[in-house]
Amino acid sequence: METGYRTYGFPLAEVLPTMEQLAGFLHLDDEQHPAWQFADAKLQEIRSLGLQAVGCYRFFPVRQLDIRGGVVTFEEGSLAPRPQVCGYLRDSELAALFLCTAGFYFTEESRACNERDEILEAYIVDAMGSCSVENAMDRIQESLSREMEARGLHISNRYSPGYCNWPLADQKNLFALMEGQPTPVTLSESCLMAPIKSVSGIIGIGEKVKKREYGCAICNNGNCIYRRLIHK
Amino acid sequence: MSEILDKLFECVEFGKINAASPYPPQMKGQDGASEYTQKALAEGFSPSEIMDTALIPAMTKVGQKFSENKIFVPQMLLSAKAMNAALVYIKPYFSSGEIKRKGTFIMGTVNGDLHDIGKNLVCMMVEGAGWDVIDLGVDVGPDKFVESIKQHPDAYVGMSALLTTTMPNMKTIIDAIREVNPKTKIIVGGAPVSADFAASIGADAYAGNPQEDVEALERFREECA
């Protein structure tokens, strides 16, 4: 398996949420609601802007997966996603560490709306950014899955620091492992990514790897974006 | 309550901003919060009466519906827009002292954290409940909170954190505030924050949603009365 970065770029227009997806995310069921009307028009506007979502991943051979200890070790370093995520990565021979971003547009536009006291519009634009980056990452994950299946390998679901009990502070180790990555995503001292509408994490790969459901039933993070996207 | 104030209540509850707003459909073509507020003032209702019998109860109902998952953020924000349309005509009476505010609430997202949606929702609901709100913004460290509490020593403080890595900053800020004003009541909230965590860092209350901020402030006010 190659050791360099695999990079992806998508026109933002292709990964923007559909109105149906966004409405589910926002719990909107009334097409006449001003939020729906605004969102519909804004999606069309954004499609014409020519912006891009970008992402990348890199393969790391797994040297050791300590499920009980919650640590996955590679040649170049280790991550500590805790036992729950390590359990989901069971039988991984390789890991793809990934980064993906929908860019600065959504945060800047949301902030501009807020400054004009357009609080509803700010919230919707922010939600569009959250959905867009997940849609972009879905496409990267699908591409990875196809490539691995062709080689007789299976992939796990994707997991990110801050979710499924993986401490957010482990972002620092993840970014250290991904030194030289080609996206514009940076990490603050408090482990906040910039652009904010970015995702990072790990996907396990191996002959016996299974894609397990997210453990939403046993998690009490009611604000989790995955819960909102999966169980909308 | 009079018909005008009933209508104003309804406009805020369902997000009817003004006569030109087509939403909600069942109120299309009717006056909205903007017009009913002007009418109420013209008919001699005092600004306090309008606040206390229409606007604040309407936003309280909105907050309750939100906390019970009967409505969601877009619906709550539309109500806030209607409330703001009414406040355009009421706010001048805040500064003149004709309307007595319940107190001052200082709010910010803690340092290292740039998330502002939760904070904005809290500010909006607390203001709608009759409080003066000072929004310090995002990435706010102890110095800015302390400076604000020095300027408003009777104020209550709220802080939000959306990251597990920035939650510990809440304790640093609480300690700094308590150093200059040990009696300041402080509410904390945000996705990773819990009631146990709030207690462990010395906060006076944990709020899981904006309505719980409003309820905590009411409790503090009663305790101080």
Task: Please describe what this structure looks like.
The complex is a heterodimer of chains A (232) and B (225). Chain A has one domain: NADH Oxidase, CATH 3.40.109.40. Chain A is 38% helix and 24% strand. Chain A has eight helices and nine strands. In chain A, the strands form two sheets. In chain A, strands 1, 2, 3, 4, 5, 6 and 9 form a seven-stranded antiparallel β-sheet that branches. A two-stranded antiparallel ribbon of chain A has the order 7-8. The radius of gyration of chain A is 18 Å and the shape is elongated. Chain B has two domains: 3-96, Methyltransferase, Methionine Synthase (B12-binding Domains), Chain A, domain 1 (Orthogonal Bundle), CATH 1.10.1240.10; 104-224, Rossmann fold. A five-stranded parallel β-sheet of chain B has the order 2-1-3-4-5, with helices on both faces. The mean pLDDT of chain B is 94. Chain B starts with a helix and ends with a helix. Chain B is 55% helix and 12% strand. Chain B has 225 residues and is of the alpha/beta class.
